[in-house]
Every structure is written in C-alpha cells, then in structure tokens.
Amino acid sequence: MKHLRKLALISLVSALIGLAFPYVNFAIDQTYQQLKVIVDVMELIRENYVDEVGSQKLIYGAAAGMVRELDDFSQFMEPDVYTRVKSDTEGEFGGIGIRVDQREGWLTVVTPLPNTPAWRAELYPGDKIIKIEGESTKDLIIDDAIKKLRGTPGTKVTITISREPEDKSAEWITRDVPLVREIIKTENVKSRVIDGKIGYIKAIEFTGHVVEDFTKALEDLKKQGIESLIIDLRYNPGGLLSGSVDISKLFLDNNKMIVYTKGRRAENYQEFRASSRAPYSDLPLVILVNRYSASASEIVSGAMQDNKRAVVIGERTYGKASVQSMIPLSDKSALRLTIAKYYTPSGRSIHRDEKNNTGGITPDIEVKMPVETEKKLLQQAEEFYYPGKPEGKDGKGVEKKKEPQVRDEVLERGVEILKARDVLVNLKVQKQ
Interior CA angle at 255 toward 250 and 259, to 5°? Predict the structure, then answer.
C-alpha cells in the first residue's frame, strides 16, 4: 500500500505539472513509466521470490545498482557504512598494510606499506584482491572492502589475489594469502639527500598532515644544503585536494593556476590558484610519476608541468581526477556522487577516458621499467628507509640472502637532468 500511495502521489504531481507546463508532460510521463518498472520488479520479487526479502534490502540494492552504472567512484552507502566513513579518522588501526583502489570493478593494490603484513607477504602494485575470506570483491564498494580488511590486531584474514604475469599472453596467477592484522601506522613523507646537493622527497599519499610533514622535510633538506629537489609521486594514490594545492603553493607564485574543476552545473566550477609569493619558487624541480600515481599526485604534477615549473619523468599516470560530493539521505544512508572533473591549468582533463585514450599526466620524459624491477625497487626502498635493521637481516631480525641492487632508472634520469642543469648554469656564469 505504501508503494501504491507513492505511485499515486507521483501521478498526481505529474498531472498537475503537465497541466501547467504541457511541453514537459511527455518527459514527466516517461520518467513515471521508468520509475514504475522499478516498483513492479520490486513487488514481483517480494511476492514470488523463493525466499522472503525485505523491502529495505531491495531498495538499497536498486540504489546501489543505479550508482554502479555511473563510474568506479560514485557509491551508494547504507547507514552503517556512511556512519563509519564519517568517523574513520584514526591515525592507526588494525589492518594488513596496503593502499587500495577500485579499478575495473576490482579491489586493486596501489602499494603495500613498508614493514607491514602485506609487504612481508610480497603483495605488489597491480595485484587484484578478488576475494576476502572467500567472498568475491567484484563491484564491492571500497569502504566495505576496507572494513573487511581491517580488524582487531592479531586476528587473521585470508585474501585471494590475482596477479598479471610477465608474459601478457599467459593467464593471471591466482593464490590465497593468509595474513595477520597488525597496528598500521601511516606515514606520508620520506626524504634524503642524493649526491650532497639534490634533495629527494617521496610523498606517499596526500592525507593527514602531509603538508606539514612535506614542509618540514623540505626545510630539513635546505639546511643540509640542497640546491634542487626531486619529488617522487610514484605509487601515490592521492588523497586530499587541499594537500595537493598547498604543496603546489610552495613552488608556484604570482597567482598561477594550479587546478580547476568543472561539471554540468555552474556552481561546480572552481579555481585553485597559487599565492602571490612562494617560498621555493626558484628551486629546480623534477617530479617522478608512474601508472599508479593518481588523483592529488596528478594535480601536483599537472600544475608543475603546465606552468613549466618542473620536468615530469616516468610513465603516464592513472587518470583518477573526479570530484565526489557526499549527499546525506533521509534514512541516514548517503550518496557519494561524481559532480565534476579536475582540469590542469592548460585545460587538460586529468580523468582517464579509455575510449578516447585521454587523461592522466603524460610525462615530459617517458621511462618505463619492467614489473620485476619495480618490485625489487619497492623492496630496496624499504631497506633504505629502515637503516636501523641489523645488517643482513629482515624486519624480524631473520637472516636473509643479500641480493644485488637494481637500478632505479627513473630516479637516475631525474638526477642526471638536475646535474646537467647545474653544469649549464655554471657555464653561463663563466661566460659572463
């Protein structure tokens, strides 16, 4: 009866609007017929399905199905999921230590966090988590997936991963990975000095205190006498828009455009610009990216590239640059809806369009590395950033075989460019 009353109300409103505005009558009638299909299906399921199903479950299922037709980032959230998303701001938690994203309908590893269960189990970027505790993750919204992966430290969770082989023509490799959850402490920034004069900052993600941590790292590097900087955004899945804008403001001045958003509605157009001055506007800069760099990391690299402020090196980035709005609904559920896309200062859409092969940030200098080399580099990075570990032992103090180091060709190219710049500047000074 409740649904019949709703249909009656829709019919009445349609009729009244149709009388007042005859030219919209056809569109309203068409919408009514489409809504009637949903109600008819729901009633048929309730009356004839082999098991009894509650109306609320069917309504939520219909809402989730509609949103799933849009893109990977729009989501319908039931009340319990929305409540958790609003309150999920802890700095540490029980988990397995991976950053994940939704790609092609599957939960996908962006990068494992150093010295965590996922890292020790040798999960790698690009691995698809196809099951959690035997249940498929196909089209599972990312917040629900994270909820399943997190839990009380010391408890076990088994995931099933599928990995693309080196031979692209071969079948994907699938295996079960049992893991024990631990307290995961997030880290945003790592830094060091290369060859005495070149600063290196790896921004892991744009969340939490990333601007504060990045600024402190840069100040420490300047005290050590660096004359140029490499920002490594490889495997950076993004995060807060404010973080990407504020970090860009460290290097861009004169109110230059950083990024802007544009959607169907005029109010979704918004510009983000630099300030009149920047503390490091003259610091020579190189940015490293790869196919896992996404979102906020693409905003930074795109802003620097379009403003001729940095040389971007690596692979074309992923192309995840859409704006989502969180819209609470009457029953405390919510809709996360894509309302706009990000554009670089020159007007390039960052968001990937597979059909037209556009989107992402194409580097100024393209350098690709084999997958196996990338995996070894991730391991080497962990060893470098944990120098306190006993020599020849892993994170648990267990003896391990010393393996030959592999070259990071992307980083090496960045160092070469900055050194070449110094040589050219010195030659110019000598001639004067």
Answer: 75
Let me know: does 194 contact 169? Beta carbons within 8 Å: no
Catalytic residue positions, numbered: 295, 306, 320
Q: Is 341:353 a contact under the CB 8 Å cutoff? A: no
* DSSP state letter for 376: H
* Alpha carbon distance 125, 115 (integer Å): 15
Q: Are 284 and 304 in contact (CB under 8 A)?
A: no
Whole-model pTM: value is 0.76
Tens digits of residue pLDDT in 174-231: 999 999 999 887 778 999 999 989 999 999 889 878 999 999 999 999 999 999 999 9
**Token pair for 350:** 């960052």
Structure-block tokens of residue 155: 């408890």
308 phi and psi angles, rounded to 5 deg: 55, 35
CA dihedral 282, 288, 294, 297 (to 10 degrees): -20
Q: How far apart are CA 79 and CA 91, in angstroms?
A: 23
Are β-strands 128-132 and 135-136 bridged in parallel, bridged antiparallel, or unpaired? antiparallel
CA dist 58 and 44 (Å) reads: 11
Closest residue by Cα to residue 311 from 419, 384, 396: 419
